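Q: Give me the 3D complex with guanine.
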Amino acid sequence: MTAKILDGRKISKEIKQNIITETENLEKEYGIKPGLAVVIVGEDEASSVYVSMKAKACKNVGFHSETYNLPQDTSQKELIQLIGKLNNDAKIHGILVQLPLPKGFDENLVNSHILPSKDIDGFHAINAGNLMLGEDGYIPCTPKGIIELIKRTGTDISGKHAVVIGRSNIVGKPVGILLLRENATVTICHSRTNNLAEHTKNADIIVAAVGIPKLIKGDMIKEGAIIIDAGTRKVDEKLVGDVDYDEAVNKASWITPVPGGVGPMTITMLLLNTLESAKKSCASVR
Ligand code: GUN
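A: Here is the predicted complex, encoded as structure tokens.
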């Protein structure tokens, strides 16, 4: 079997067309533009690239965007003060603090200072708790994009065996909960799982988000499985996923490329969450 490609760039483009239309309507009707503030501390090269991609994506759909590049020696107190200012800024509907933060920062504590209504990353304990409880709230962008990609295959997730590899708060844990919400049977594996292949070989859906390049080989995949690769590591200047693409493409029914699969969807879901927040702010002044 040769897998069909789940083209995150193409799907994102379609979704972004709707976002552009909704943004224009919001401006016409209420005179507001969705606004996103992105904060980065320090000079991590990969994070800086992601942050400028997020700012560019905002501009492309007509959002207001602000980027705060804070120096490496910024204190946690200063960062929290900036968040406080952004919480009170009516132009800003979403606040994103790019992770990872430099050593010494308490990421959960920093995120706890973002108003839950502006926490478009879904990392505040209130939003994470709502996800766990099955209540409404902001859903982390990469997991939200992954579920959208799986749905775009036309496969009914209900009853399928999904194996998630990775247990981060950003991807693995929330994607596991979202798959459960779709009635999948979910196994969460990680870097310390014994006999990983015994799990993956039984999976109808594999979501790899562990950050180990080419960990998932062709012989670890069931014929016809859906493969979602959220891994992104630079190897010899090339972006490589957690899945050995050249092997997996001959076993899977659908597969995401790296780059061009999950990455563009993450940014598009960030725009969607920011738009949702802007719409809610209009509803509250109606
Ligand atoms: N670092 C890697 N992915 C993300 C994300 O989705 N949000 C934030 N804030 N930081 C990240």
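A quick observation: The chain has a mean pLDDT of 97.
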